[in-house]
Structure formats: C-alpha cells, structure tokens
Amino acid sequence: MGSKSNYAENATLNHLLSGTKYVGLITAGDDSGVTEPTSDSAYARQSVTFTVTGSQADNDGTISFPFATQDNGTVELAVFDALTGGNFLYLMSVSNGPFTYNTDERIEVLAGDATITED
Fold first, then answer.
1. Which residues pair with 6 in a beta bridge?
2. What pairs with residue 22 in β-bridges?
3. How many domains does the chain have?
4. How far apart are the first and last CA of the chain?
5. Is 85 left (phi over 0), alpha (psi -120 to 50) or beta?
6. CB of 4 closer than 8 Å to CB of 51
7. I want to staple 8 with a disulfide (CB 3.0 to 4.6 A). Which of 4, 17, 35, 100 is the partner?
8. Does the residue 1 lie in any domain?
9. Is the pLDDT confidence value at 17 over 90?
10. Largest Cα span, the chain
11. Which pLDDT band, with edges at 50, 70 and 90, does 29 fall under?
C-alpha cells in the first residue's frame, strides 16, 4: 500500500478546495455519504473559502449557521462542492466541535478553527 507525496497532498487540497465551497452540518457520515438535518426549515449549507498551507487547509472566515428551528442532535461539519446536491468532499475537524444543533441556537466556527488535512 502506498501513500501520497507531500506534493500530491498539497495539490489534492488545492484542487478540491479552490474557490468557494459549502459547509454543511451532518448527523451521520462516512465515505458512502452523509445525512444533513434537512428537516430543519432554517438549515442551509454555508459558503466558505480555504487557505491551503502544505497538507492542511483552514477556513478563511467565520462559518455561521442560522438559528435552528428544531433539535437535530449532535452534528459535525462536511465540505461539499455545491450549495445543494453536489459532491461530498471532506469531513472537517473543528477545534470546538462536534456541536449540538438545538432549537433557537446558532452554530458558529471562527476563521481558522475548521481544518482539513491530507495525510
């Protein structure tokens, strides 16, 4: 079994995360797909841009989800290439997550607190 070179890791992140991407909340997920809290009328993926340094990418600005209209339990963050539908690209590591998505609460991730790594 092989692994990517540092160059390949950097190139992968730059290719997949260049331009605007979209972050969604997920209640479950793995390589086969994810489940988003779409039953919440306030829920929508949020736009994000990343800065790639070596084999790590960090969010450039605050990611802010609207106040929840219903409880959806524990959620994590995933990156997609479209506002709706599209391709699931990465699960993200968040320094203050995972989160609990509760009615009348907002989830915010400050700039630099969401990280994606290629290893």
1. none
2. 47, 80
3. 1
4. 14
5. left
6. no
7. 4
8. no
9. yes
10. 48
11. low
Q: Which residue has the tokens 């450039």?
A: 60
The whole domain housing 71 covers 6-117
Burial class (CB in 10 A: 0-12, 13-18, 19+), 7: exposed
Q: Give the CA distances from residue 112 to residues 79, 91, 94, in Å, rounded to whole numbers and listed in that order.
A: 15, 15, 9
Average pLDDT score over residue span 71-97: 84
Answer whether residue 39 is part of any domain: yes
Q: Residue 15: inside a domain, yes or no?
A: yes
- Side chain identity at 82, as an amino acid letter? A
Q: Torsion over CA of 6, 9, 14 and 17, rounded to 10 degrees?
A: -150
3-class secondary-structure state, position 13: helix
Share of residues in the chain with pLDDT > 90 (%):
39
Query: Counting every residue, how long is the chain?
Result: 119
The pLDDT value recorded for residue 1 is: 64
